[in-house]
Amino acid sequence: MSADVADEGRMVTQHTEIAIIGGGVIGSAVAFFLRELGYDGTVTVFEKDPSYQFASTARSAASIRQQFTTTVSTQMSQFSYGFLESLPERFGDDGDIGMFRGGYLLVADAARADALRACHKTFVSLGSDIAWLDAPDLAQRFPWLNTEDLVGATLGLSGEGWFDAYMLLRILRREARKLGVVYCDQEVTGIDVAGDRVTAVRTASGAVWSCAMAVNAAGPAGGQVAALAGCELPVEPRKRTMFVIQAPLSNKGMPFIFDSTGVAIRPEGDRFICSAPPDPENDPHPGDDFEPDFNLFEDKVWPALAHRIPALEELRMVSAWAGHYEMNLLDHNGVVGPHPDLANFLFATGFSGHGVMHSPATGRGIAEWILNGRYTSLDLSPLGYDRIRTGTPIREALVY
Ligand SMILES: Cc1cc2nc3c(=O)[nH]c(=O)nc-3n(C[C@H](O)[C@H](O)[C@H](O)COP(=O)(O)OP(=O)(O)OC[C@H]3O[C@@H](n4cnc5c(N)ncnc54)[C@H](O)[C@@H]3O)c2cc1C
Fold it and tell me: In CATH terms, are 13-60+165-234+330-390 and 101-158+239-325 the same topology?
């Protein structure tokens, strides 16, 4: 059975049991897992731009790590990695996401060493397969790395890597549609609320879709969509630039390196991609700005790379792109689950740079909540909305 529906426009009321607002990797994962877990009601995903040109998913570096310090994020990575690994088995050639197995290498100078050692203890206690390397081990293992000012590093030995996020989105969307999920190419411009419930979503064409539940999976527009229902959610876009470089250095065996300066680099094909967060005082709401920030490369990325990997002094920038993080301004972690005052309005947004890797766990969690009114596998309640209301951030030491 397939697939899309025409939004019939002005004055027509249609019905869907579940309205998912946003058809990126998170919204599509929710749709996919609803069917996977046996939900047989109507599910409609509202997506304002089915080209996904500006979606976070299509502009992601799409890497997955196990190196988190909270139980919930670690468990989400464990489940999600297993799910990503299972795709070729489940869907054959149609399950290919270009998965590359490679570890993250988080390096620490003297100022960060104690904190990173403490993180390493936590990784191990949470069951992650992460090694601690002292500087001499590091120098031996990665001879092209300048370790002079480093004390040590953590290296992921399994469960980490990178892939193509757009391919993952296409698989989730395709499989959901095969199982009768409908994608409606319309922007949601209004959400009707009566008492403590969402009753309908309204689209730009003027159509009204009554619904039993609505899911906010609008990515960087998560805060805007929450406001349509009168809810506050501090999730806003923040621009992040990725630079593609070439250099006279083989990237074979190179991990995804996070330098103590915040600069990150990993292999991408036979080239490299690298990035750095802008300084907080230079990180405004970007509006519609998707222009790469080339100053960031000159001021921060290139000097840090040339110091850490001397062979990169001779790098050549090939291209660059920018995308928007869906930044949760409270604590840079996802907001997942129902709003306390609108029990049928669920959040699945705000992951701030780790939403692709956690999309399978988020999709399954939200689907469980819809089916059972509670989580039945991983407990995602630490990511619940209550912390937004009380202003209580999650203490995850490693957010990028
Ligand atoms: C440069 C960069 C690097 C990144 N690197 C990583 C990484 O290495 N690992 C990782 O896990 N994550 C990474 N991320 C973050 C990751 O890409 C996001 O967390 C993830 O894609 C979020 O998925 P989403 O479905 O919530 O958002 P999106 O992909 O943005 O999807 C949301 C969708 O909602 C639609 N929408 C919005 N408002 C409405 C509305 N009112 N009506 C209808 N549709 C609407 C949008 O058109 C969009 O398609 C990176 C992001 C960027 C920008």
Answer: no
